[in-house]
Design a protein that fits this description.
This protein is mainly alpha-helical. The chain contains twelve helices and no strands. Helix 2 packs across helix 9 and helix 3 packs across helix 8.
Length: 309
């Protein structure tokens, strides 16, 4: 997309991420609920297709691989495994509404991590917008009629690991001076190898319910399609974070939960109580307030740069 202006490239990247992220949620939920496809095995398929897609991209000249030491990528690969596995387990165990709203907690956690570990400061008004987001997530989870402890444990672990992962993605790209494709090119096969070793301990490999079980052709096609969409999600996450920031990416991501909530109610008959609706509204208000303040802050910074002699 080098021929496009910077704003056009960012808009295109956000749109690709929006469409792919919504599709992957519904498709994965369908594979879990309707087919009972094993979680870790599906994650392995996603990683493998992501690496294959990147291999084809570099063969076509889309990017040039950069030599990196395995120790430089290992923490990112470990957090990538945890990020995908725990969020998928949360999706499998919770309603789509609870799964999606729990992800909203990633933003407050990222703010805490960046404040404590990287010394980054946030204005008070930005911090205050995190209160209604957190309160809304709590209300939705508390009044979810399908609430279960295991599902919330997966959601909590998913939020913690996802927050670390997204902070590290931005930090590693700047530290190693690599772009999103170069970093993911090394990380995807390393994450695949980790899962390949772990899967036999937790899931069957052959036979009924295993990755090499008697799946129908339509099921295989859906799994492969899920992997292709996952590649698009992974690549767009890296690209957006590398060109904006982890917090900005998350605030954009929260707008997607409106569509996924509606889809969960329509496709999977997920119940939605009045109190849950209040929680969703509360979270939305926090997101809108954050976005308004963040845009105002960016405009103010631009004005200061223009006014400098």
């Amino acid at each position: 997309m080098g021929w496009m202006p910077a704003q056009g490239r960012l808009a295109a990247g956000l749109l690709v991420n929006l469409a792919a992220s919504i599709c992957i949620v519904f498709l994965n939920k369908w594979l879990y609920v309707r087919l009972g496809f094993p979680n870790l095995s599906l994650t392995l398929v996603h990683f493998a297709i992501t690496w294959l897609g990147l291999y084809l991209c570099q063969a076509l000249g889309a990017f040039s691989p950069k030599s990196l030491q395995p120790s430089q990528v290992l923490p990112l690969a470990l957090s990538f495994c945890g990020f995908v596995v725990f969020t998928n387990l949360s999706l499998q165990s919770n309603t789509i509404g609870t799964y999606q709203l729990a992800k909203a907690m990633t933003t407050p956690v990222i703010v805490v991590i960046q404040s404590l570990a990287y010394g980054k400061t946030f204005p008070l008004r930005i911090k205050l917008t995190l209160v209604p987001i957190t309160l809304g997530v709590f209300l939705n989870s508390y009044y979810d009629v399908k609430f279960n402890v295991l599902g919330m444990a997966f959601a909590t672990l998913g939020v913690l690991v996802t927050s670390l992962y997204q902070v590290w993605v931005g930090a590693k790209q700047h530290e190693l001076q690599v772009n999103s494709m170069q970093l993911l090119y090394y990380q995807a096969p390393m994450s695949s190898a980790m899962l390949l070793f772990i899967i036999p301990f937790f899931e069957p490999v052959f036979g009924e319910g295993g990755i090499f079980g008697p799946w129908t052709l339509s099921a295989v096609i859906m799994v492969l399609l899920s992997g292709i969409i996952a590649f698009m999600v992974n690549l767009s996450i890296y690209w957006i974070i590398g060109n904006t920031s982890p917090v900005t990416y998350n605030m954009f991501g929260h707008f997607k939960f409106c569509i996924t909530l509606l889809g969960g109610c329509l496709l999977f008959k997920d119940p939605l109580s009045v109190n849950q609706g209040l929680g969703i509204l509360c979270t939305l208000l926090g997101i809108l307030a954050y976005t308004h303040f963040k845009l105002s802050e960016q405009e103010s910074n631009k004005s200061k740069l223009v006014q400098r002699p």
